[in-house]
């Protein structure tokens, strides 16, 4: 059920990708969800950039000759300025060391064409909306993972999320809009969203809230969609 909610949130972003010659998938990884593939439907080529050769190989298996595959850092893209029609960047920049994150934002801006759009999924350090929803969940439902055995441990990627205040205080060269991608993180959904009608109803309510108040949810939820546009 949480996976279906995530897929619905991804599809909502497809409205930003109208087409062109090049879609940059910045930090593409293996292109984890099929819904991300839909972003490139109206582009001639999808340029996948990632540090992992293994991830790029998996992406190649999904895109074939329609893809261009570059092993590189988002802070130093081997791409000419103003070459890219649109950019998708999903859950990557907050994994970059904090001192370099602003460089990644401005590097994406550099390669974007005038009239282009970049959709960046980020992760805020402070999430007051998720905290309020957790308090509500604690009042009306027991934890969905109560009584379950702990999941086997596995290596986790480093996360270095910055705050909304940090982002808004930067002297960015671009204009931007903050929308909601997902107000809830994975840990919250594992803990509080049950796999029954109650969980489905709860997520439908959360999705409706994201639709009604996208800016509020984007600013105060867990995962914003930061939309950059170049005039």
Which descriptors apply to this entry?
231 residues, alpha/beta, seven-stranded mixed beta sheet, 23% strand
Describe the structure.
The protein has a 7-stranded mixed β-sheet with strand order 3-2-1-4-5-7-6. The chain has helices at residues 2-12, 34-37, 53-63, 98-111, 128-140, 164-169, 186-192, 197-212, 214-220; strands at residues 20-26, 43-50, 67-71, 84-90, 112-121, 175-182, 223-229. The protein is globular, with a radius of gyration of 18 Å. The protein is α/β, with parallel strands linked by helices. The protein contains 9 helices and 7 strands, in the order αβαβαββαβααβαααβ. Helices cover 39% and strands 23% of the residues. The N and C termini lie far apart (39 Å). Helix 8 (197-212) packs across helix 9. The protein has one domain (2-229): Rossmann fold (3-Layer(aba) Sandwich). Mean pLDDT is 90; it is low at 147-155.
Q: Report the major sheet.
A: 7 strands, mixed
Give the integer mean of the pLDDT values.
Answer: 90
Radius of gyration from the CA trace? 18 Å
Gross morphology: globular
Strand order of the largest sheet: 3-2-1-4-5-7-6
CATH architecture: 3-Layer(aba) Sandwich
CATH class bucket: Alpha Beta
Domain count: 1
Q: Look up the CATH topology.
A: Rossmann fold
Overall helicity: 25-40%
- CATH homologous superfamily designation: Vaccinia Virus protein VP39
Task: Give the end-to-end Cα distance, rounded to a whole number of Å.
Answer: 39 Å
Order of helices and strands: HEHEHEEHEHHEHHHE
Q: Supply the helix-strand structural class.
A: alpha/beta
- The helix count comes to 9
Q: Give the number of DSSP strands.
A: 7
Oligomer: single chain
| Poorly predicted segments | 147-155
Strand-residue proportion: 15-25%
């Amino acid at each position: 059920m949480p996976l279906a909610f995530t897929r619905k949130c991804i599809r909502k972003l497809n409205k930003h990708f109208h087409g062109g010659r090049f879609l940059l998938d910045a930090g593409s990884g293996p292109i984890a969800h099929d819904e991300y593939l839909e972003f490139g439907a109206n582009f001639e080529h999808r340029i996948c950039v990632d540090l992992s050769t293994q991830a790029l190989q998996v992406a190649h298996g999904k895109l074939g000759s329609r893809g261009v595959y570059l092993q590189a850092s988002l802070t130093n893209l081997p791409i000419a300025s103003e070459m890219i029609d649109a950019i998708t960047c999903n859950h990557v920049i907050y994994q970059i060391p904090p001192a370099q994150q602003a460089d990644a934002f401005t590097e994406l801006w550099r390669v974007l064409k005038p009239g282009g759009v970049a959709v960046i999924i980020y992760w805020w350090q402070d999430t007051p909306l998720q905290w309020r929803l957790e308090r509500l969940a604690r009042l009306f439902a027991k934890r969905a993972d109560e009584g379950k055995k702990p999941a086997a441990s596995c290596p986790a990627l480093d996360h270095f999320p910055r705050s909304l205040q940090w982002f808004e205080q930067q002297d960015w060269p671009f204009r931007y809009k903050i929308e909601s991608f997902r107000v809830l993180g994975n840990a919250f959904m594992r803990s509080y969203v049950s796999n029954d009608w109650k969980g489905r109803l709860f997520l439908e309510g959360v999705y409706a809230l994201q639709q009604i108040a996208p800016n509020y949810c984007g600013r105060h939820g867990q995962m914003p969609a930061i939309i950059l546009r170049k005039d």
